[in-house]
Automatic annotation (TrEMBL):
Record keywords, A-Z: Kinase, Transferase
Gene giving rise to this polypeptide: kdgK
GO cellular component: cytosol
Domain Carbohydrate kinase PfkB intervals: 1-302
Family, per entry: Belongs to the carbohydrate kinase PfkB family.
The protein, known as: 2-dehydro-3-deoxygluconokinase
Length: 321
């Protein structure tokens, strides 16, 4: 099996220990966030070799992130350091229900300086899949240029491209630029993994079938639309189906479910599993991730994943997210 490459920004994460507005919280616990970081952790826990292209500030948060990468067996050879910029961080609230409040401190961060020079030294022949999200191109002009350069290099080396839009409007100058860049990247992907609400922002339909048809007709090989508690809809031009997700015991924090889902899909693709088995695994890990507070602590080892899939029933569908 080839390695999987992730590219993006890991951040310090401070999670509120009590409910209420972020400015009133008195106790936070420290962890690490980052959409691509979460996917890297998920893949590595399942035994896949992962490389993570990023840039860290030479500061305590950067050191915390690299320590967590090492603890999770994520290769650090694509990582670089800078003394001039800080590692970004974010605050996350504790929600009674639904998505928690978040606030970023990441403008001009170390990772926002990722550029072509960081990519030129990579030997793409070792990597079977490149996974990126819509966060990297939102970080800065150089990071946006680097995102397209990564895609170009991946294509030249026949490395498959997986793209999760992870739409973060607060990081973009305006909606029009965001949608146009997202669509330019999506159309070049082999695996496109939007949430149904994200796809609606990108192509104005909330019908999973219409979303898949739209991107397949533009050359995407596999479209897998995440539909929250209704699981996911997948299509690749040969087959299409809706796959229910698993019954959860309790939802602790909704953040990171999509990243867990991506780890499930990419691990299965790298292992040569069928589309339906990939989506079942994506659904299982997405559901497992909902049941823990951090953005990546709920991501399972293979033993835990197999036990979860064996002992949990599939949910009955209906009623949207
Ligand atoms: N309420 C739920 N019950 C069971 N499984 C869920 C629930 N919500 C999400 N999931 C699982 O997690 C997957 C990803 O969740 P979702 O559709 O919310 O993706 P997303 O919008 O990318 O998430 P996020 O960006 O918040 O991480 C779903 O496809 C599903 O398998
Ligand atoms: O919101 C972001 O930019 C992050 O990368 C932090 C979180 O870990 C991520 O949103 C989870 O998908």
């Amino acid at each position: 099996m080839k390695k999987i490459m992730l590219a993006g920004e890991p951040m310090g994460l401070f999670i509120a220990k009590e409910e209420g507005p972020l400015e009133a919280v008195s106790t936070f616990s420290a962890a690490v966030a980052g959409a691509e970081f979460n996917v890297a952790v998920g893949l590595s826990r399942l035994g896949h070799e992962v490389g993570y292209l990023t840039k860290l500030g030479n500061d305590p948060l950067g050191k915390r992130i690299v320590r967590l990468m090492e603890e999770n067996a994520i290769a650090t050879d694509l990582l670089s350091w800078t003394d001039d910029r800080p590692t970004g961080f974010m605050l996350k609230g504790k929600a009674k229900k639904g998505d928690p409040d978040i606030f970023y401190f990441r403008k001009n961060s170390a990772a926002s300086t990722i550029s072509r020079e960081d990519i030129d030294k990579i030997d793409f022949s070792k990597y079977g899949i490149l996974h990126i999200t819509g966060i990297l191109p939102a970080l800065s002009e150089t990071a946006r240029d680097a995102s397209f350069y990564l895609i170009q290099k991946a294509k030249e080396n026949r490395t498959m491209i997986s793209f999760d839009p992870n739409i973060r409007p607060q990081l973009w100058p305006n909606r029009e630029t965001m949608v146009s860049i997202m669509n330019r990247i999506a159309e070049q992907s082999d695996y496109f993994l939007p949430g149904v609400k994200e796809a609606e922002i990108m192509m104005q339909s909330s019908s999973p079938e219409a979303i898949a048809e739209y991107y397949l007709s533009r050359g995407v090989k596999n479209v897998i639309v995440k539909i929250g508690k209704d699981g996911a809809y997948a299509a690749n031009g040969k087959e299409s189906f809706t796959c229910p997700t698993y019954q959860e015991e309790r939802i602790v924090d909704t953040v990171g479910a999509g990243d867990g889902f991506a780890a499930g899909i990419l691990s299965a693709v790298n292992e040569g599993l069928s589309l339906i088995d990939a989506v079942l695994r994506g659904n299982a890990i997405g559901t497992m991730q909902l049941q823990s507070e951090g953005d990546n602590e709920g991501l399972p080892t293979r033993v835990k994943l197999n036990a979860f899939m064996r002992t949990h029933a599939l949910k009955k569908t209906g009623g949207g997210k």
